[in-house]
Amino acid sequence: MASFYRDGSRWLIRLGEDDRSRVADRVLSLDASGARGSILMHPGRASDHAACYPLEYPLEDLLFRHLMAEHDAVLVHACGVAWHGAGYLFVGSSGAGKSTTARLWRSAGATILNDDRTVLEASPDGLRIHPTPWFGECPEVGGEAAPLRAVYLLRQGDDVSFEGLRPATAAALVFAKSFPPLWDPERMEKTLATLGRVCQRVPCGWLTVPRDARAVEWVQAQG
Description:
The protein is of the alpha+beta class. It has helices at residues 59-68, 98-107, 167-176, 185-201, 214-221; strands at residues 2-7, 10-15, 26-30, 37-41, 73-83, 86-91, 111-114, 117-123, 126-130, 146-156, 161-164, 204-209. α3 crosses α4 (185-201).
């Protein structure tokens, strides 16, 4: 169980509390920027202190989300692909076809940044997608950030088709498949603004993908 508290200008993230005990396993205290903080660990909650990883899940994930908002970025439930100097983001829930998409693009010679969780950034320097270590079914992920060319929301079907979306609609749908800092209204506002900028500047829409390489070929043909 995780809980979040605002203490003046600082954020406190407490993990391990339950209805029986108000003693947390770990408490992360962050300054207003989210860049500096400290972790307090309960000494009686681990048998091997030397093997303890202070940022063990879910703290690592929560901290990452918190920091991303300060860098005009958001973690998205998506497959990120880099191909010929361009980045493509394929957004979807579990079972939508992200891992299948990753395998098909890998077979076509693309670099798979991640098949499950990809960072989407809209900084003043441009739109980019970044790899993360949290892969799904395809562990061979990595590479470098790639300039974003398009955002596709995946749905399965027998034939390839594309349905473009208005920027506001696309931003709302991508937000529904993202991992924002829900506990912080200010960072939530920044996250929404980030997604709004992205969806105004690149093509976004529903991409129907069969289980073969036709969708890969269709995207490649768009240039």
